[in-house]
Amino acid sequence: MANYTDDLRLAHLLADNADSVSMSRFKASDLRIDTKPDMTPVSDADVATEQAIRSTLAKARPRDAVHGEEGDDTGWGPRRWIIDPIDGTKNYVRGVPVWATLIALMVEDEVVASVVSAPALGRRWWASKGDGAYAGKSLLQGQPIRTSGVSSLADASFSYSEVSEWMASGRGQHFVNLLRDCWRTRAYGDFWSYMLVAEGAVDLAAEPELALHDMAALDVIVREAGGTFTDLDGKPGPLGEGAIATNGPLLDLALDALRPDEIN
User: Fold this and answer.
1) SUPFAM superfamilies this protein is in (predicted)?
2) Model pTM above 0.90
């Protein structure tokens, strides 16, 4: 099995630089906010954070491709870095501390290493293929994390995204039914839902509309913590429609609950 230790260390360095940029603009009175064509907000901090990551990658991994939310794709080849400079921009621009920089390395179509850094929460999560998942303040202060053993929806804690997205997805009623079937439901939001699954604090998380940069870094952390990460139809990985992350035992139950009527 390939060793991605050096890549993971680089991802932490990229996250350190990103944290410096993003935190310097968090709650800044002169933060500039624009609206992208898809009507989602983008701040000058999003752009500057991604530029900082790309600049370091250009020097440290010049042969690797890069895909980011705010910039054009660069490079070509089997190794590709996937960047979301600020996941949770709506929180960021309102001063809510639940946001993070997502950095992942994909080889072919598999995510093999990633770091999720939430500096305003003082927490970071990371994993590499075959080496487990960890959380803590830094690479040297990490503790192993593991998904829960909950096996029934009646005992499960479910974290979800905006209700309007589910209603627009064609799975709205299925989503509502799943909420009713679960013991506890909360919209922790964005990256945090999935990191809580990896930590075993939440048992199930799902969103109907996500892009590759939203999901790549989350995927390997959940899997290395013992969980599953699939699209809404059960295909493993971050390349499909939306995402369902589970502790493992709940995967089939969640997929069945959210499956469109014409497939049931």
Assistant:
1) Carbohydrate phosphatase
2) yes
Predicted confidence (pLDDT) per residue in 186-199, tens digit = 999 899 999 999 99
How many residues does the structure list for the chain?
A: 264
Q: Per residue in 113-143, pLDDT tens? A: 999 999 999 999 999 999 999 999 888 889 9
Tokens linked to 184: 């506890």
Looking at residue 39, its pLDDT comes to 62
Helix residue spans in the chain (DSSP H): 5-25, 44-60, 89-94, 163-168, 172-181, 190-199, 212-224, 251-258
Q: Taking the alpha carbons of 164, 262, 204, 139 in that order, is the dihedral positive or negative?
A: negative
- On whether the CB atoms of residues 58 and 82 are closer than 8 A, the answer is no
Q: Which amino acid is at 40?
A: T
CA distance 100 to 234: 26
Residues 159 and 192: their CA atoms lie apart, in Å, by 9
